[in-house]
Every structure is written in structure tokens, then in C-alpha cells.
Write a structure and sequence with these properties.
It contains four helices and 34 strands. With 473 residues, it is mainly beta. A hairpin with a 2-residue loop joins strand 21 and strand 22.
């Protein structure tokens, strides 16, 4: 059942004049959906908890194809997320195929008295608002509530069975790469997480006679759900499969071993244990540090460490609470770490939901370089507290600074971890709009590569800051 049952209260009608996605350009009214049970999903596309809800929504749509309509009400947290073109791109990337309305001014949000991402609202076939459920709702109780609403509507002659009358999926972006989320460079080797195609490409990197970088695919690893973070440790390639709730170690002939995660989304606090037996929550970023693999565990707002020999895994930094609070490793609060990078004996990480860049080590704990909190974001350069980023998702140590993928500002930033100064990257790479939601960045100390996610490509950042697209062969 829903957490909050409201009784006989009509659901507020959708506001007019809003942009819709996956409807063929058609505006949708709740009155258009009479006869079907409706589940509204209030979400924002950068939120990891909202990502956790999506498989449950898809499962409900599968179970109730002729009686249930799911509608996404997108109330974007970040300014960048409120732009319809960006939202449409995110729906494609995250496989959101039901109707979605861009509630950029929170008008529908307020009319339903919603206060948190994610929240779902269940509406009966006659338009009655049955209840609200904040958070990552449990699947089976929600399915029971929907079954009850269907039975009640059928009993009173109000149920109209049949196909969904409003949903029309937008065309998918297709190409050689599809929303590549991460890239790793090491000399003449380049590894690409071709996230939208569920594969990892291991390549030999060279330049042709014209100077164009060419990645010759030497191995293609398929069968991933949502490959993200990449790291090499002990001569082996590791891949974080965010949606599959697992970290994999790859070997020759496409051999793979799950070294962290059971494949099930973890619930609540985990103390760790033997990696393949531990439920985890959205492992995203990876970095090799000595004999350990550091994992940005975005869904539990922590950094984890995995011993690559024993496969012992444990939380390393962060309590599991979502906030920006510095302190010892066991007391600090972190907010959705998606990118990690070794920085000497420390780990630098992109704390994307707080738009912050932070460092962690055994001696000092967690310390913020730039960033002020969950709701302080923008595009502002300067020093320390004056700096504002917008949902920066990855970073890499490069030439004495941190190269930062300032994802929702569509460009790269150069941040000095000592002086805490932030400024745009030199040349084209630092210009707003030169990239589109860059989600991954990697350096081998000489070469800097970027996963230009929204443009479905990987680019090299040349010494003058110009961008050169890598051609796959």
C-alpha cells in the first residue's frame, strides 16, 4: 500500500502549457487517462534514488500493460535539468519510455504537495488521488496497491482495459557510440565504457597520417547493463556496472569475474564483507590506489575499498547520509560520488549531487576543495567558497591540477587542489557548450581524454585546449 492514503480527494489536473516527452508532441491531461490507474513519478534525472526507482516502474508497466499508465513528472533540481532538450536526452539515456512532463517551475509538484525526490502518486481510474509514497518505494506493496485499485475500478464499472493511449516513445539516438559514460587512457591503450550499448571497448590508440586519433578495437566486452567506471589494477581491467549493482574484473577471451556486488540493489547500511556476497548501491567511479580499488558508491553516498587479492570490501569514507560535511572518514557526509581519481596517496572525488570536488585520506579524512552544499550550484570561478560547479561527475589528476568534467555546465574546469582555485580549462575545452554533459575524464599524465557523453563521442584534449574526436576503427 502507499505510505499516505488520502481518501476521496480528486487528483489535481495537470497544468497547461508544459513541454511533454514520449507523447509525440501531444499535451496530456489527467482527464485523458480516465479508466486507467495512473502512477505519477516525481523525479529529477541526476538523482541516484530516482534512478533506483526506474526499474521498479518498468516492472509495474510490464505487469499491468492494459490497466496502468506511468507518467513522469520531472521537477529538475539543477537549472540544466529543467531544459526540455536536456531532459529528452536524459530520458533516452536512462531508457525512460513512458510519458514525461517537464514541470520546470514545480507547478504540478506543488499542486500534489510533493516534498522529496523521488515520490510517486497513485491515482484511481476515476481520478481519485489514492496516496503518495516518497522515497524508493518497495515494489510488491505498490503492486498490491495497484491491483487493489484495478479491482475496485472493475467492480464499479470504471476500468477501461486496453493499450496506453498517450505514450509514444521518442526516437533513440544511435551511432557507433551511444552515451559513452567513461574513458580510460594509458599510453597507447584506450578503454571506453560505451554505456548506451552496454559494452566496454578495449582499444589500441594511435594517430593517422593526418594526426587524427584512431582507437583500434582489440577487444569488445558485451553484456553489461550500464558500464561506468574503469580502472586497471594488477594488470587487470575493472568495470563498474552501475545498473547491475556489480564491479567486474575482466580477463582474456572475455572472461569476467564479479568481484563486488550480488546483482541486487542493497538496502540500508552495509558493513561490507566478501565482495561478491555484498549487496551494493550503484557503484559508479573506480580508481586504483596501491593494492586497493576505490569505488565511488553513488547510491549509498560513500567511498568503498576493495582488496584486489582477497576481495574484502568495506565502506571507507562516509556514513551513508547524503550531505556535504567534512570530517573523519567515519563521520563525513558525502553526496553521490560518481568519479574518483588517485591523487598521490589520497583520493580525489567528484561529489556530484553537492557539485563539489573533495579529497579523502586516512590521515585527514574528507576535506572539500570546492563546493558548498546540496543546493548551491552554478558556473562561477574563483577560489574555495566562491566557486560554483553544476553536477560535476568525474575528475582526473593531470599536470599538477585536477581536470574536472563540469557535467551540467558542458565544459571542463581546472582546479588546483592546493590553492583551491578553479578556472575554465584552456581553449575550446573550457568554453561553455563545447561538450555536452561530459561524464568521464581520464589522464595518463600526458594525454587527457573525455567521454563527451551527450555528443556520443570520445575526444582528446590537445595541449592548447582544442578538442579532437577519436575515430573508432
Amino acid at each position: 500500500m502507499c505510505a499516505s492514503w488520502l481518501g476521496s480527494l480528486s487528483a489535481p489536473e495537470f497544468k497547461e502549457g508544459l513541454d511533454w516527452i514520449n507523447t509525440g508532441g501531444r499535451d496530456v491531461r489527467l482527464s485523458d487517462l480516465r479508466g486507467r490507474v495512473v502512477l505519477l513519478d516525481f523525479w529529477t534525472y541526476g538523482c541516484i534514488n530516482c534512478r533506483h526507482v526506474q526499474p521498479r516502474l518498468r516492472e509495474l508497466e510490464r505487469r499491468f500493460p492494459d490497466t496502468l499508465t506511468v507518467v513522469g513528472v520531472h521537477a529538475g533540481k539543477f537549472t540544466h535539468e529543467r531544459i526540455t532538450e536536456n531532459l529528452a536526452l536524459a530520458c533516452d539515456r536512462q531508457n525512460v519510455v513512458h510519458a514525461v512532463v517537464n514541470d520546470r517551475q514545480y507547478r504540478i509538484w506543488r499542486s500534489f504537495d510533493v516534498s522529496a525526490w523521488p515520490t510517486v502518486a497513485l491515482i484511481a481510474a476515476d481520478g481519485e488521488l489514492l496516496g503518495l509514497q516518497p522515497g524508493e518505494f518497495p515494489l510488491e506493496p505498490m503492486a498490491d496497491a495497484i491491483n487493489s485499485a484495478i479491482a475496485d475500478a472493475e467492480k464499479h464499472g470504471k476500468l477501461v482495459r486496453g493499450p496506453d493511449r498517450v505514450t509514444m516513445r521518442q526516437p533513440r539516438a544511435e551511432g557507433t557510440l551511444r552515451f559513452p559514460g567513461r574513458v580510460l587512457v594509458a599510453g597507447d591503450r584506450m578503454v571506453i565504457a560505451d554505456t548506451g550499448h552496454g559494452r566496454v571497448l578495449d582499444c589500441a590508440l594511435s594517430r593517422d597520417a593526418a594526426g587524427t586519433p584512431v582507437a583500434h578495437v582489440t577487444a569488445e566486452h558485451t553484456g553489461f547493463d550500464e558500464p561506468q567506471g574503469l580502472a586497471v589494477l594488477g594488470g587487470r581491467l575493472y568495470v563498474a556496472d552501475r545498473a547491475a549493482q556489480a564491479v567486474w574484473r575482466l580477463g582474456p577471451d572475455d572472461q569476467r569475474e564479479r568481484v563486488l556486488g550480488t546483482g541486487e540493489l542493497g538496502e540500508g547500511f552495509s558493513a561490507g564483507g566478501f565482495g561478491p556476497k555484498v549487496d551494493v548501491r550503484s557503484p559508479w567511479g573506480l580508481a586504483a590506489l596501491e593494492d586497493w580499488l576505490v569505488v565511488g558508491m553513488a547510491g549509498s553516498h560513500q567511498l568503498w575499498r576493495l582488496d584486489h587479492d582477497t576481495l574484502a570490501a568495506r565502506p571507507w569514507a562516509g556514513t551513508g547520509g547524503e550531505e556535504l560535511t567534512d570530517g573523519t572518514l567515519g563521520r563525513a557526509l558525502i553526496a553521490q560520488p560518481t568519479g574518483v581519481s588517485a591523487l598521490g596517496t589520497r583520493v580525489a572525488f567528484a561529489d556530484c549531487e553537492s557539485s563539489a570536488i573533495r579529497v579523502a585520506d586516512e590521515a585527514v579524512g574528507v576535506r572539500t576543495i570546492v563546493g558548498k552544499g546540496l543546493f548551491t550550484f552554478g558556473d562561477k570561478d574563483g577560489v574555495a567558497g566562491d566557486v560554483q560547479l553544476q553536477h560535476a561527475e568525474d575528475l582526473a589528476a593531470h599536470d599538477g591540477v585536477l581536470a574536472v568534467a563540469d557535467t551540467y555546465n558542458d565544459r571542463l574546469k581546472r582546479i588546483n587542489p592546493v590553492t583551491r582555485e578553479s578556472r575554465p580549462w584552456d581553449g575550446e575545452a573550457g568554453q561553455a557548450g563545447a561538450l555536452r554533459e561530459p561524464a568521464g575524464i581520464s589522464s595518463d599524465g600526458t594525454m587527457l581524454a573525455v567521454a563527451d557523453t551527450g555528443n556520443h563521442r570520445v575526444v582528446l584534449v590537445e595541449p592548447d585546449g582544442s578538442l579532437t574526436e577519436v575515430r573508432l576503427a
